[in-house]
Amino acid sequence: MAGTRRTDSETVSECADNTVVGMLQGIHQKVTNIEAVLGQVEKPSPPPKRHGIDIVLGAQWGDEGKGKLVDMLSQTYDVCARVAGGSNAGHTIVVDGVKYKFHLLPSGILNKEAICIIGNGVVVHLPSFLQELKGLEKTGIDHKGRVFLSDRAHLVFDFHQAVDGALEQRLGRNKIGTTKKGIGPAYASKISRNGVRVGDLKDWDYFEQRFRALAEHHMRSFEGLEVDIEAELAFYKSIADVIGSMTVDTIDLTNKKYLEGKKILVEGANATMLDIDFGTYPYVTSSNPSVGSVLTGLGVSPRKLRAIYGTVKAYCTRVGEGPFPTELDTNIGIGQHLAQVGAEFGTTTGRARRCGWLDIPQLKYSVAINGFTSLNLTKVDVLTGLPEVKVGKGYKYRGEYLTTMPASLAQLKDVQVEFESMPGWSEDITTCKTFDELPLNCQKYILRIEELCGVPIR
């Protein structure tokens, strides 16, 4: 008809003389037209999640300053939790001139309104735990009724620590660099299914049976190891009631607090590059300090997670052995500056930390694993006074750029790091409270990190 617009599909259909193939072509064209129209309609963004579990994780090799961030954040939270690792973690916090060192307890214990949960994924050395509580009491921090131990958390015994040290000594120059806190052997007992759990103390006969079997197994397995079983049992019987008063089903407790609308903060220990699965294996810890441990170590659904904060030092450090691509010599020059100005000594071991420039490929790898919603950049002031600051921007191996962190340590050890240099700053930034107060070159450094990682820095 005159004045009637002919569609492409009608033309296709007529040209095909109404054959089956022609009809199919016509249907395909109509579907294509519909999809093209629908594609122009912008889908509404989902509303922001207002309630959920927030997480602070280490994005490098540890010692990024997680404890300080948690201390700042935890003042507004109702629940603070640890979910993995044990007393191998170490956070130092200074409040009103008083220094607090935490190894098992969440740093959030300093918020007198918050309760603290040690989840099922943590391995607990009870003597150290009780000592930490006593240390709090001496500084006037009241923890009674605010600390809850998971009945499913596994115990670290003194013989685990003895085995840890013996295994490290056997390795000689190939040592892992463990803290010798018994964490690995305790997780080994857990995975071997002969471990003992915190909740077992509530049934003394069962606890005694399990402990004797585990101690005897270790003495058979490690020549020269002696365990005074009767003395150990006497000690654990003496603390059973105290520990029992703090022992609960933390899975039930955490999920109830979530349903009540309470604000929950998870304090990660160690860091992604020390993760047993994702780190520089075997130079790693024995747990998963990445985001997955929140689910398995606390007993919550991934749908309940909200913000994931990655804590990142403005340069890199690591304690212990293993590859470290951007490492500098801490005896001279810039490496010495980072070590001395940054006071880079471990909270748990007191060991000097290895230092190097910020490693962007490593950081992007950590971002991919954890899905950080934002980064918390720490110790930027340590770089003050350097005429030039650098970031490791890319890895090359045998002339080829790598797109991720290689699993092979031999490969990672031999990568060539491509650095990007930027002018430094000399202005004191220790009193700066906002981004705009920072010197221009410092701002450029931070913005460049944000650009390379693709995650906002808050």
Quick structural gist:
The protein has 458 residues and is of the alpha/beta class. It contains 14 helices and 19 strands.
Explain the overall architecture.
The structure is a single chain. Helices cover 36% and strands 18% of the residues. It is of the alpha/beta class. An 8-stranded parallel β-sheet has the order 9-7-5-2-10-1-11-16, with helices on both faces. The radius of gyration is 27 Å and the shape is globular.
SSE order and pairing:
Elements: H1 8-15, H2 20-38, E1 53-58, H3 66-74, E2 79-82, E3 91-95, E4 98-102, E5 115-118, E6 123-124, H4 126-138, E7 147-150, E8 154-155, H5 158-171, H6 183-192, H7 204-221, H8 229-244, E9 247-248, H9 250-259, E10 264-267, H10 292-298, E11 305-313, E12 316-318, E13 327-328, H11 333-341, E14 354-356, E15 358-359, H12 360-370, E16 374-378, E17 388-397, E18 400-401, H13 409-413, E19 416-423, H14 440-453
Parallel strand pairs: 1-10, 1-11, 2-5, 2-10, 5-7, 6-8, 7-9, 11-16, 15-17
Antiparallel strand pairs: 3-4, 12-14, 13-14, 17-18, 17-19
Spatial arrangement of strands, main beta sheet? 9-7-5-2-10-1-11-16
Amino-to-carboxy terminus distance? 64 Å
Bulk shape: globular
Structure class = alpha/beta
Mean pLDDT across all residues, rounded?
88
Q: Uncertain segments of ≥5 residues (pLDDT<50)?
A: 1-17, 35-48
Largest sheet: 8 strands, parallel
Question: How large is the share of residues in beta strands?
Answer: 15-25%
> What portion of residues is helical?
25-40%
* Number of H- or I-type helical stretches: 14
Global Rg:
27 Å
**Strand element count:** 19
